[in-house]
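can u do me a favor
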């Protein structure tokens, strides 16, 4: 009898092992295990990753082990209690084993494994891998039965890990770890995932603000214009600014001047310039980043479907979408460089052409950029009109006041986050 009682507890212990192992291995982080295998060379993590590739076998094995040993423990306990109490032993066995199985082979091991999934998975992986091999003939038959049942009831069994689902899972993983100490890293990772959803038109330097030079301009005059320019590459046009015929690197032009000892008559700008690289405005930032890498370029001319100049985009523009504003030695490090300046304690004067993405990133606002690129475009879309100076609107918790309008173009806007103090202002 003592041997039987010991065997019951041994079976319960094995059942608890399989139950906890199932929870740990299904809840363990695959990303963590890949890192442990690739970078830490952990053999147990390698075993877990191998088990992950055949999750159906893993689940069937753990379920089979748990149920098998639960059944064996219950049968043996029932036999012992019937021998002690007769037919009443069945009732005693049912109550006792239900409590033992529920608490000690289900709740306790699973609760612990949920809280320490990665650690437990690394401990149990070699043992579970052994049982997977032992039960493989049985799991093969059970898999066939399961697959037949799926087909019989026309249940969908294909892998649902499509691209959107994978991206969503990555975003969720990033959001899970949102502590202040990794806030910047999390924002950069999410920005990388957004590159395929943003087009170059959204981040380019618009043609209205484009610094370009006439290719037929006297070289001396050209040098005077570029030597104090903050740009390293400058588009060159012929006849009209929209007709870009080349791009010149300021360093090459100045080097040529030194080599020719400032004899400008000997300098041929057309030989120094490189041919322009035109790209469509609807190119995504991810595509453009890959093309920049492939061509080893840093500068591209953006055109629309008709070949009309829209602006220029640089490698730095794309990198700033990931890491935020990059101020080098030629940049003025204040908000005025973005067309934004502080106006009072809690308001800003914003140029209408400031991109919504820039201002959202700068202040943590959530102005909708789905239907418009610039702040002025956003107001035109939201109001379905061309507002007059002095008009005020509230959208998304922000108070917009039209300060200046140039013909039909909104050129300056005052933006004030809404608070209890200013929420009562008159709105037109």
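np, heres the sequence
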């Amino acid at each position: 009898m003592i041997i039987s009682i010991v065997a019951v507890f041994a079976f319960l212990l094995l059942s608890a092992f399989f139950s906890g192992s199932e929870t740990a291995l299904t809840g363990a982080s695959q990303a963590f295990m890949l890192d442990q295998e690739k970078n830490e060379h952990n053999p147990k993590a390698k075993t877990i990753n191998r088990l992950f590739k055949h999750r159906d076998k893993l689940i069937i094995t753990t379920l089979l082990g748990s149920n098998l040993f639960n059944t064996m423990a219950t049968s043996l306990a029932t036999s012992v209690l019937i021998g002690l109490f007769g037919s009443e032993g069945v009732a005693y066995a049912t109550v006792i084993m239900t409590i033992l199985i529920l608490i000690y082979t289900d709740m306790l091991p699973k609760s612990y494994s949920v809280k320490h999934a990665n650690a437990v998975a690394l401990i149990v992986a070699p043992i579970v891998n052994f049982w997977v091999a032992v039960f493989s003939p049985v799991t093969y038959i059970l898999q066939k039965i399961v697959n037949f049942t799926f087909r019989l009831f026309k249940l969908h069994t294909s892998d649902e890990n499509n691209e959107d689902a994978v991206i969503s899972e990555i975003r969720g993983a990033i959001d899970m770890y949102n502590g202040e100490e990794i806030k910047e890293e999390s924002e950069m990772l999410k920005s990388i995932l957004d590159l395929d959803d943003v087009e170059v038109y959204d981040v380019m330097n618009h043609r209205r603000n484009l610094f370009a030079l006439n290719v037929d301009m006297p070289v001396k005059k050209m040098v005077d214009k570029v030597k104090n320019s903050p740009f390293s590459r400058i588009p060159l046009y012929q006849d009209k600014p929209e007709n870009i015929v080349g791009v010149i690197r300021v360093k090459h032009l100045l080097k040529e001047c030194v080599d020719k000892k400032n004899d400008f008559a000997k300098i041929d700008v057309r030989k120094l310039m490189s041919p322009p690289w035109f790209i469509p405005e609807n190119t995504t930032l991810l595509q453009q980043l890959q093309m920049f890498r492939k061509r080893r370029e840093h500068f591209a001319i953006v055109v629309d479907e008709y070949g009309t100049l829209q602006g220029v985009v640089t490698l730095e523009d794309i990198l700033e979408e990931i890491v935020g504003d990059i101020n080098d030695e030629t940049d003025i490090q204040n908000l005025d460089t973005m067309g934004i300046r502080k106006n009072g304690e809690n308001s800003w004067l914003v140029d209408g052409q400031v991109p919504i993405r820039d201002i959202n990133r700068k202040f943590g606002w959530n102005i909708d950029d789905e239907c418009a690129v610039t702040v002025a475009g956003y107001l035109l879309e939201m109001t379905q009109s061309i507002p007059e100076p002095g008009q005020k609107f509230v959208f998304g918790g922000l108070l917009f006041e039209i300060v200046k309008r140039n013909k039909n173009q909104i050129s300056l806007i005052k933006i004030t986050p809404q608070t209890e103090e200013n929420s009562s202002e008159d709105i037109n």
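The two ends are 89 Å apart (CA to CA). hope that helps!!
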